[in-house]
Amino acid sequence: MTVAISVSVFAVGIIGTILLQRFYFGERREWELRMRNLDAHVAGFENAPPETEQVKIPLPSLQAWLGKSKLLAPLARSLAASGLNVTPQEFVAFVAMTTAFLFAVGAITTRNWFFSLLGCAVGLLIPLLVVRALAGRRKLILERQLADALILIGTSMQAGYGFMQGIRVASEQLPDPISEEFQHVAFNVEMGMSFQSALQSLGERVQSYEYDMMISAVTTQMESGGSVTGILENIAETIRGRNALRDEIKAMTAQGKLSGIVLTSLPVALVIGLTFINRRYANVLFYDPKGQIVLKIAIGLMVVGWTLVRKILNVKL
Predict the structure, then answer these.
(1) Same domain for 205 and 223?
(2) Domain count for the chain
(3) Is 136 within 8 Å of 169 (Cβ atoms)?
(4) With left for phi above 0 and alpha for psi between -120 and 50, is residue 70 left, alpha or beta?
């Protein structure tokens, strides 16, 4: 156990030093370069579009390992969808640091392998859950902005603009994050990427049914020569209906979600309170073998209960 604690603390120090150097003392990285590399991968380009300024790749050895394990592209898409300005290799290094840190905390405080490995699992899951939550929040904002964006593009086309000019107008008039995404689409087309590939890269980044529906309809209409303005208005109306239904479902499931949060956090708060009120009574759960068995069963039941509540209340449109 002592050796494991020493290795964990050493790993935290090394990885933390590397990340600190990258974020505060390293060269500034360009967010647009990462997005263009992702667009090039989605479009099937062997190389990224030409850049006037090259950016030094952080942690190249870790990036090479991720590339060999085929985790680089999926992780890059997830980070792009969340809006975090970090590279996949930096994220993996941060996950390794949090895992080692929480393992060391569990080992030092409990001297028990189960709780040390539990802290290790928590350190692994927390960054992944944060990325997933940020991606979901950003996706929801993008979906709610899409209807207004389509109406604005349709109005611009009625005024004599083309579709790409309408996207440029929408990127200038609407707030982030949709303006940022439309700017990427316009830039990719200006750099020589085909219109279909630029829209496809947008769909890959956002990963939303509404955007896939819009991309398929617009691509089909432009290839067949149909009225793009009319289809944009129909899609905007459909999206507004879906948003209204989503809000209704959210209101109906809010009480159940709150009950799940309260029931899950109440045992944790009770254990913390007992630790401060009567530490000897609470230590039975951590140091007595029977207490450890009870605590393990309680943690397992909490995880199962929380998972069931989330599954029941997670209504997807």
Answers:
(1) yes
(2) 3
(3) no
(4) left
Span 209-226, pLDDT tens digits: 889 989 998 888 888 877
Q: 107-121 pLDDT, tens per residue?
A: 777 777 777 788 888
Amino acid at 239: I
Of residues 69, 84, 80, the one with CA closest to residue 42: 80
97 and 208 belong to one structural domain: no
Q: Is pLDDT above 80 for 72?
A: no
Please give the residue range of the domain that contains residue 266. 253-313
Q: Using DSSP, state whether 86 is helix, strand or coil.
A: coil
Q: Which residue among 105, 136, 167 closes a domain?
A: 136
Domain end residue (candidates: 244, 262, 292):
244
Residue 249 burial (CB < 10 Å; 0-12/13-18/19+)?
middle
> Among 14-28, 130-144, 183-197, 299-313, which is the least confidently predicted range?
14-28
Contact 80/38 with Cβ under 8 angstroms? yes
Residue written as token pair 């029931």: 263
Strands of the chain, DSSP E: none
If pLDDT is split at 50, 70 and 90, which confidence band does 15 have? low
Q: What angle do CA 147, 235, 317 make, to 5 degrees?
A: 85
Q: In whole angstroms, what separates CA 142 from the centre of its chain?
A: 13
CB 293 within 8 A of CB 218: no
How many angstroms separate the CA atoms of 46 and 50, rounded? 12
pLDDT at 142: 92
Do residues 135 and 77 touch, judged by C-beta distance below 8 A?
no
119 and 155 within one domain:
no
3-class DSSP string for 137-191: HHHHHHHHHHHHHHHHHHHHHHCCCCHHHHHHHHHHHCCCCHHHHHHHHHHHHHC
Work out the burial of residue 79: count CB atoms within 10 Å of its CB; fewer than 13 is exposed, 13-18 middle, 19 or more buried. Answer: buried
